[in-house]
Amino acid sequence: MVNGACPACGTRVLAGEAFCESCGHDLSTAPAGPCTACGACAVGPDGYCENCGMLQPTGRDHVEIEAAYSAAVSDRGLRHSRNEDAMALLPGGQGAVVAVVCDGVSSSPRPDEASQAAADVAAAAIVKRLADGDDAQAATREAVRLAADAVAAAARPGEDSPACTYVSAIVLGRQVTVGWVGDSRAYWLGGQSALLTEDDATPGTHMLTAWLGADAGEVVPHVRTFTTDGPGAVLLCSDGLWNYYPEPEALAATALHDTPLVAARRLVRLAIEAGGHDNITVAIIPFGQGERTDTTVAFPKERSD
């Protein structure tokens, strides 16, 4: 570096200096561009501005996916500087659709990396296991194990462990298999809309009792399979949506009258308009559309075997 000023604090620095003697800024790192909050060219390799402390946004601020007649939308909302949610949506063999939603735990380091690793690893694992002949429940359990390992492996010496929640759905034939760890949710939307998951959290709070991460201990996912004989939709979401719209009937009123992508966009927009306090992620998988000519929808019954 030639003689000039520290990009973080403006103090004069000399060529060859590795750190600013005034503020300690690492002068060997290439500037990452100005901070979106304060304008200082002081964004460190960890994504935080060394001048004001703001975590910089990434290319995941708003993401949309369409696959296999299904759709997912994720948005950072209004209050967070970065989207720490992640999602995956993949077609599987024999007409299966696989969706995963993970919500990074904001109090942990690099929660966006944790959620993305978990979503990507889990979705790919489910598709592979189904192709190898595993049933949906076995595929889900293996996917959670691999996702938990991926998040745990992201931990660095001397820092707390990255962490995230997890929820997935496999729609295959007339069966819906959901798996979850944490408080991301799955809903059945139809004539008897219902919440399919139970939050791993202290009642009445957002204090998680289970999550993915190196400090999570043994991860034991909840896995359930339901069957249904009528059309409807499976919805996965992070708490950025259900904080504002927890009731299945309200979600169904919005999600069942448009294409999955339009419906997911609308639900995300409603959460933003309600306050957008958290990141918001919604995945919608239509189920049995066009199979019946009436409007009766049967609530999926949990498999007994």
Automatic annotation (TrEMBL):
Domain PPM-type phosphatase, residue spans: 69-287
Top-rank taxon: Bacteria
Name the record gives this protein: Serine/threonine-protein phosphatase
Naturally occurring in which organism (per UniProt): Sphaerisporangium album
Source taxonomy: Bacteria, Bacillati, Actinomycetota, Actinomycetes, Streptosporangiales
